[in-house]
Amino acid sequence: MPDTTALIEQAYSAFNKRDIDGALALMTQDVSWPKASEGGKVIGKEEIRAYWTRQWSEFDPHVEPLAIAAEDGGKIRVRVHQLVNSLQGDVLSDSEVLHVFTVKNGLIAAMDLGDEADTAVGPSAAFAHRS
């Protein structure tokens, strides 16, 4: 799993640096991604770019992987420390959450929120407080 671990760590690092191009380079063209701050999902790199651009104009999220574990079928479970601040620096959420990645051919094909029942219903609790 060393290559997969490095892939996941690179993706978090790029996200935290707001390096959209660097993060998207690690994903498949048709990557599926949860819209944690809005609810639902986006499909494809350009939809992720638009979503992250909106998200970062409203919140300042930082996610740090704490534990990475491989499962069968290319699934990678990542326990992360998620800190969501308002743009003014107020802490909106400070918690641990579970992200579940699907990796195909060395690229991230999907990410799902592993600890929330249904992201299609609405935003993650971490993003419930609008700035």
UniProtKB/TrEMBL annotation:
InterPro entries: NTF2-like_dom_sf, SnoaL-like. It holds the Pfam family SnoaL_2. Residues 8-110 form the SnoaL-like domain. This is SnoaL-like domain-containing protein. It comes from Silvibacterium bohemicum.
